[in-house]
Structure formats: structure tokens, C-alpha cells
Amino acid sequence: MPCRFVAVGNQVATLMSKIPVQSVQPNAHSELAAPALDPELLALPAPPSARRILAVGLMVAVVLAATALLAMVRGDIRYFFEQAHPEELGHAVALDPKALVPNRHVRVVGTPMLSTAVRYRNPLTGARYELFALAGQRALFVQVPLDEQTERRLARAEFSGRLVTFGLMGGRLDAVRHYVAGALGVPVTPETFVLLADEPPRSAGWAVALGTLCVCVLVLNAWLAVRWFRPLRD
Q1: What mean pLDDT do residues 165-190 have?
Q2: Domain range 85-199, its CATH number among 2.60.40, 3.30.1300, 1.10.260, 2.40.50
Q3: Which of 12, 26, 157, 216 is the most exposed place for a label (fewest CB within 10 A)?
Q4: Distant-in-sequence, close-in-space partners of 18: CB < 8 Å, separation ≥ 6
């Protein structure tokens, strides 16, 4: 029930002066006060910048390596999708080097020249090969894998397989090319053709598998980079 004051003269002022007045102090827990810093949050260690830089550098190195490896096997991947039936080139003597297209599955007829023959071993796989030119020309060499069966059949005059150039094979035949040109005195350039005998298109299946692995690595690194560097949502 509200109280009524009956003021007569100066009695109102006297009664009001006797009412105690309390000052309102700001409360530390009030909404207007500045939020205090969490000591546990301040105690957390700083983000490991060195590890972050190392992780980013490793991702970049993996991407570059996968891209370079994919570029190296792109020719082998294309050859995998060539037709299984070889293209007939005819006799080696009648070949026109300008009409030859590298990275094709072909068949050629010719007589091996033993004076230009070189035997060597693949240091990675240990497989043994023999390289020689076909008689009557110097634009086409033949590489034949050596084993107990092929050594007895080197006198054959028909060869089918993958048609490439020394330059297209990169470092895989560089040492052989320099040896043939230097020690044997046979003119060989990066544009000289080589028939990799007994290598049908399906023999390049390893390149397709390796290329698929490289693509998966690139996609995975791209996905990780997007997740890592995308801005945080509020």
C-alpha cells in the first residue's frame, strides 16, 4: 500500500534530507563490464608455425613430384590405348622417316645388322636387351628383349611393337644412343626411330596404374589444401 506524505511548510525538505542515499557501484559481473580473459586459454601454446610450414612444403613437393611423374608417363599412357593390331610399315629399306608417327603399334620387315648391335641391361628391372639397325637404312633401330627363346630367334626378319624415338624415351636410352653414335660411329640423333619389339599396347598397363596413382595424389592434396586454408565460418 503506497504511503502518503503530508507536507506542511518546510517539513518535506526535512523528511527528505533524512532518507539515506546509496551510490550504485559498477559490478564486475555486470553486462557492461569488459569480459575477462580466460587464463586457461592464455596458457595454451602458440600454433606450431614451423610444423605448418613443413607440412605446406611437403605438400608442394608431393604435388610437383606427382605432376612430373605424370608428365613422364603420358606417352606410355597414350600408347596403352592404341589398337591391338599393328600398323604395317612394310620393308625397312622402303621406309620414309618423314611419314613415321611415333608412339604407334607397328610391324616392320628387315634384316638385322650385327655390326650395329649393342647389348645392355636395364639397371632397374635387370632385363637384357639388344639394339641394332635394320639393313639398308639408318633411320630405324630395333630393340629386342633377350632371353633363352629370343636369343635363338634373333635371325627373324619381322618385328612388331611400339615405335618411338630416342628423344621420346628420355633418359631410358640416352646411354645407348651415345654409345652407338660414339663407339660404333653410327649416326644417331634424338629424332632417330626405335622399334621396341614385342611390346604391345597392353604392356603399358603399368603406366596407366602409375598415372592413376598420381592423379589420386593430386586430388587428395587439393582436397587437403581446400580444407586447410578455407576461412572459418562464424
Answers
A1: 88
A2: 2.40.50
A3: 26
A4: none
